[in-house]
Amino acid sequence: MIDWFAYVQVAIAVLAGLFCLVRGFMGRKPDDFTLGATTVVEVLLLVQLVVALLAPGFGNVPSGNVLEFYTYLVSAIILLPLAGLWSLIERNKWSNIVLAIANLAVAVMVYRMLQIWAFQLA
Q: pTM here?
């Protein structure tokens, strides 16, 4: 993991989560904006997957449990499309709340992945 990229991911996921939360509490149904914000977070996670796969080859090895790191990463990658699918099937204001919770959960998961990669001793 690259530190600055992880912090950017956390910030964008928090912003996307807050945006979806506000839209949900305004009573809005899921739209291109809320799904687009969630898609941006998903794309960043896919980039993080590529970075995590290539980083050890360049000497950036994880300091913590690799299995735990990839469990968080794969879970986060799966979580957002499931929340997006929920919002497409159940089109009401609560779907935006589900998207918000998923984005905020991903922010926490990415921060935990950074801790596992950089600050935790195996």
A: 0.91
